[in-house]
Fold this protein.
Amino acid sequence: MTDRELDALVAEKVMGWRIERYMTNPPKPTGMGMPPDSTTIAEIPAYSTDIAAAWEVVEKMRAQGFDNQFSWRADRPGHRSRPFACFGRNGSAEADTLHKAICLAALKAVGVKMDD
């Protein structure tokens, strides 16, 4: 999943945005709706790459009653620590950056199944 796809998923599932999806050069309407491979072109904050935008996710989760925890974890001595974010009991994730960990943890907390 690209960063922008992650941003769109966070906007929709965590922040409550209604995302309009359509292709850059859409086909002529056929009455069947838009094709499933349509792309998101809404102006979505860069939640997964900008810590200020990611902090909006933290504030939204707090407003919804989720406890939160942030730390850096090094599971094995001598290895680089990784940012860790947790919301409630079901939403925890590690990633290369804290902003991405926040996004992944928030999605898990609201029930979006994520590949580990």
In short: The first helix runs from residue 3 to 13. The mean pLDDT is 82. The helical segments are 3-13, 51-63, 98-109.
